[in-house]
Input
Amino acid sequence: MPLRAIGFDIDGTLYSAPSLYLRLMLKGLTRMRLLVAFNEVRHDLRNLIKSPEYRNRGISGIAAFHRFQAELTAKKLGADPAVVHDAIESFFYTESLEPFTTIKPYVGVTRLLEDLRAKGLRLGAFSDFPCKRKLELLGLADSFDVALTSEETGLVKPDCAGFDLMAKRLGVASEDIMYVGNSELYDVAGALGAGMRAALITRKRFPASAAEFTFFDFADLGRYIALHANHEGAN
Output
């Protein structure tokens, strides 16, 4: 099927993630226990999506997800969930955005997004973390038709719920969407599980990937998409 839409992960896909992580580590030196516990919880949540008990809880919406996330983190720290919730919101969802005033997209990203829009393709940004403000600071907000986070569904990648939601908001069938990410386990597996096509950004010359296309030069990605897009059908 010809492509009619392209979805993009954000962190590590549209910009260099290590440049952000270094800045966050420096900012978080006085909150190292919180950083470690929060990181562990985010990994725990990827296992919880497989749990019928968790899924039956029906956690939906960013606010509800953040409260549950804070409860899990508080247990690891032996702290008050309300206090931990406020600390997480302050650092991970507010202060962590400050470095984006100096972070730039990868070379070729802006040009690629402009070209894809000119071809009539629908564009979506989908991340495990809220991404609208990040896109604004990266100067890319106007390039996307939709921007969303898996936190809205309560089910992080690679669960298909967020991918399905992106397809619904784009108004395009999943099989007509290619999702571009930097993680084989979360982005590629998640996209394929949702019935989408996948591309992987990687510096490896011969990566072992289930993605149909691997690249590091965004010009190469643009040429590949051009060959597989139905330009008239995408309008």
Notes: Residues 5-15+103-228 form a domain with the Rossmann fold fold (CATH 3.40.50.1000). The first helix runs from residue 17 to 27.
